[in-house]
Amino acid sequence: MKNINSTTGLFLLLLCLLCATGCNKTEQLPFASGKTKELRWTLSEDGTLTINGKGKMPDYIATDYSLPTPWEEYQDIITSVVINKGVTSIGDIAFAGCTNLTSVTIPNSVTSIEGGAFSGCTGLTEIINESADPQEERGAFYGIDISACTLRVPAGSIDDYRAAPAW
Prior knowledge:
alpha/beta, seven-stranded mixed sheet, four-stranded parallel sheet, 2 helices
């Protein structure tokens, strides 16, 4: 009888420990979210801005009649940008001025990166580009210290990126 009580007590203790460390976890809700044409965006509390959907990202041109980015009020807390497969372009000045941005992930569905998309992102240290072919890029990384930034590309594409302007 003593062995059964000891085993039962040990089982209950392990069950309590498991529940205390993982049973009460809830899915992290976005800190902020919204839509921009056919794309959706979410910003998590850890500073990750994720772009989802299919199609082209709008251009946010810096003029008197500029269209502000929907995440503009959060640009100081954005530390990472993850663009998911299905997005086909990154718009003009889409992430410009996000000085705390340190990493960007670009899927192989993106075929162009528009002017100044990441200009002024002085904290950028890593770009993960999943495309085998370097995208057309129009001064997207203006003002970034490329010597302090690591570019990660598919293994067979390194020479293509070295030969491409701006990459």
